[in-house]
Protein backbone atom coordinates (compact mmCIF):
# COMPACT_ATOMS: atom_id res chain seq x y z
CA UNK A 1 0.00 0.00 0.00
CA UNK A 2 1.51 3.31 -1.12
CA UNK A 3 0.22 6.44 0.60
CA UNK A 4 1.87 9.80 0.01
CA UNK A 5 0.56 13.30 0.85
CA UNK A 6 -3.03 12.16 1.53
CA UNK A 7 -3.12 10.17 -1.73
CA UNK A 8 -3.13 6.41 -2.29
CA UNK A 9 -1.75 4.62 -5.33
CA UNK A 10 -4.57 2.65 -6.98
CA UNK A 11 -4.55 0.37 -9.99
CA UNK A 12 -7.51 0.02 -12.37
CA UNK A 13 -8.02 -3.71 -12.88
CA UNK A 14 -9.77 -4.82 -16.09
CA UNK A 15 -11.26 -8.32 -16.10
CA UNK A 16 -9.99 -10.24 -19.13
CA UNK A 17 -13.22 -12.25 -19.17
CA UNK A 18 -15.86 -9.51 -18.88
CA UNK A 19 -14.06 -6.21 -19.41
CA UNK A 20 -15.47 -4.96 -16.09
CA UNK A 21 -13.20 -2.60 -14.19
CA UNK A 22 -12.58 -1.81 -10.56
CA UNK A 23 -9.91 -0.01 -8.59
CA UNK A 24 -7.60 -2.04 -6.39
CA UNK A 25 -4.19 -1.89 -4.77
CA UNK A 26 -1.12 -2.83 -6.79
CA UNK A 27 -0.21 -6.38 -5.84
CA UNK A 28 -0.79 -9.97 -6.76
CA UNK A 29 0.16 -13.55 -6.19
CA UNK A 30 3.35 -14.78 -4.58
CA UNK A 31 5.29 -17.00 -6.98
CA UNK A 32 6.51 -20.44 -5.92
CA UNK A 33 9.50 -20.10 -3.55
CA UNK A 34 9.17 -16.29 -3.54
CA UNK A 35 9.18 -14.35 -0.28
CA UNK A 36 6.02 -12.17 0.08
CA UNK A 37 8.33 -9.27 1.00
CA UNK A 38 9.96 -9.56 -2.45
CA UNK A 39 6.67 -10.27 -4.24
CA UNK A 40 5.14 -6.91 -3.28
CA UNK A 41 8.04 -5.00 -4.87
CA UNK A 42 8.00 -7.20 -7.99
CA UNK A 43 4.22 -6.78 -8.39
CA UNK A 44 4.46 -3.02 -7.84
CA UNK A 45 7.02 -2.73 -10.65
CA UNK A 46 5.10 -5.04 -13.02
CA UNK A 47 1.74 -3.34 -12.54
CA UNK A 48 2.71 0.31 -12.18
CA UNK A 49 6.23 0.83 -13.55
CA UNK A 50 7.37 2.15 -10.16
CA UNK A 51 10.16 1.00 -7.89
CA UNK A 52 9.62 0.90 -4.17
CA UNK A 53 10.88 -0.22 -0.78
CA UNK A 54 8.90 -1.91 1.95
CA UNK A 55 8.79 0.26 5.07
CA UNK A 56 6.71 -1.98 7.33
CA UNK A 57 4.25 -4.82 7.55
CA UNK A 58 0.74 -3.42 8.02
CA UNK A 59 -1.05 -6.70 8.62
CA UNK A 60 -2.56 -9.88 7.25
CA UNK A 61 -6.18 -10.31 6.20
CA UNK A 62 -7.89 -13.65 5.68
CA UNK A 63 -11.42 -14.04 4.38
CA UNK A 64 -13.58 -16.46 2.43
CA UNK A 65 -14.98 -15.05 -0.80
CA UNK A 66 -18.39 -16.63 -1.56
CA UNK A 67 -18.77 -18.11 -5.04
CA UNK A 68 -21.47 -15.58 -5.92
CA UNK A 69 -19.06 -12.70 -5.27
CA UNK A 70 -15.84 -14.26 -6.61
CA UNK A 71 -14.44 -13.30 -10.01
CA UNK A 72 -14.18 -16.94 -11.12
CA UNK A 73 -17.48 -18.01 -9.54
CA UNK A 74 -15.79 -20.42 -7.13
CA UNK A 75 -15.63 -19.95 -3.35
CA UNK A 76 -12.06 -19.45 -2.17
CA UNK A 77 -10.05 -18.21 0.75
CA UNK A 78 -8.04 -15.06 0.17
CA UNK A 79 -5.04 -14.36 2.41
CA UNK A 80 -3.67 -10.87 1.84
CA UNK A 81 -0.40 -9.55 3.23
CA UNK A 82 -0.38 -5.76 3.38
CA UNK A 83 2.85 -3.76 3.43
CA UNK A 84 3.47 -0.03 3.60
CA UNK A 85 5.62 0.75 0.56
CA UNK A 86 7.42 3.97 -0.39
CA UNK A 87 7.91 4.75 -4.09
CA UNK A 88 11.59 5.36 -4.87
CA UNK A 89 11.58 5.74 -8.66
CA UNK A 90 10.11 4.78 -11.98
CA UNK A 91 7.11 6.30 -13.72
CA UNK A 92 3.45 5.28 -13.72
CA UNK A 93 2.40 3.34 -16.79
CA UNK A 94 -0.13 0.61 -17.74
CA UNK A 95 0.91 -3.01 -17.14
CA UNK A 96 2.34 -4.41 -20.38
CA UNK A 97 0.23 -7.39 -21.48
CA UNK A 98 -1.52 -7.39 -18.13
CA UNK A 99 -4.79 -6.65 -16.41
CA UNK A 100 -3.82 -3.25 -14.93
CA UNK A 101 -4.97 -0.58 -17.38
CA UNK A 102 -3.61 2.34 -15.38
CA UNK A 103 -2.32 3.34 -11.96
CA UNK A 104 -3.08 6.72 -10.43
CA UNK A 105 -2.46 8.64 -7.22
CA UNK A 106 -5.95 9.14 -5.80
CA UNK A 107 -6.86 11.65 -3.06
CA UNK A 108 -8.02 9.67 0.00
CA UNK A 109 -11.44 11.42 0.18
CA UNK A 110 -12.15 10.36 -3.44
CA UNK A 111 -11.74 6.63 -2.74
CA UNK A 112 -15.23 6.27 -1.25
CA UNK A 113 -16.80 7.18 -4.61
CA UNK A 114 -14.89 4.57 -6.64
CA UNK A 115 -16.00 1.08 -7.65
CA UNK A 116 -13.23 -0.72 -5.81
CA UNK A 117 -11.98 -3.98 -4.43
CA UNK A 118 -12.50 -4.66 -0.74
CA UNK A 119 -8.68 -4.85 -0.60
CA UNK A 120 -8.55 -1.05 -0.87
CA UNK A 121 -10.66 -0.59 2.25
CA UNK A 122 -8.79 -3.29 4.16
CA UNK A 123 -5.42 -1.74 3.28
CA UNK A 124 -6.55 1.78 4.18
CA UNK A 125 -7.95 0.57 7.50
CA UNK A 126 -4.67 -1.18 8.32
CA UNK A 127 -2.62 1.87 7.30
CA UNK A 128 -4.77 4.27 9.31
CA UNK A 129 -5.13 2.18 12.48
CA UNK A 130 -1.86 0.20 12.56
CA UNK A 131 -3.38 -2.50 14.78
CA UNK A 132 -0.83 -4.09 17.12
CA UNK A 133 -2.07 -7.54 16.10
CA UNK A 134 -1.92 -6.74 12.37
CA UNK A 135 -5.55 -7.84 12.06
CA UNK A 136 -8.47 -5.77 10.80
CA UNK A 137 -12.12 -6.61 11.45
CA UNK A 138 -14.05 -7.89 8.41
CA UNK A 139 -14.90 -5.17 5.90
CA UNK A 140 -18.58 -5.00 4.99
CA UNK A 141 -18.98 -5.67 1.27
CA UNK A 142 -21.74 -3.76 -0.47
CA UNK A 143 -22.39 -0.74 -2.61
CA UNK A 144 -19.28 0.16 -4.56
CA UNK A 145 -17.02 -2.37 -2.81
CA UNK A 146 -16.38 -5.61 -4.70
CA UNK A 147 -14.32 -8.74 -4.02
Description:
This protein has 147 residues and is α+β, with helices and mostly antiparallel strands. The chain has a single domain, classed as Alpha-Beta Complex (Nucleoside Triphosphate Pyrophosphohydrolase), CATH 3.90.79. The mean pLDDT is 90. It has helices at residues 36-48, 118-129, and strands at residues 3-4, 7-14, 21-24, 50-65, 76-90, 100-107, 116-117, 145-146. The two termini are 17 Å apart. It has two helices and eight strands. A hairpin with a 6-residue loop joins strand 2 and strand 3 (21-24). The strands form three sheets. Strands 1, 2, 3 and 6 form a four-stranded antiparallel β-sheet that branches. A two-stranded antiparallel ribbon has the order 4-5.
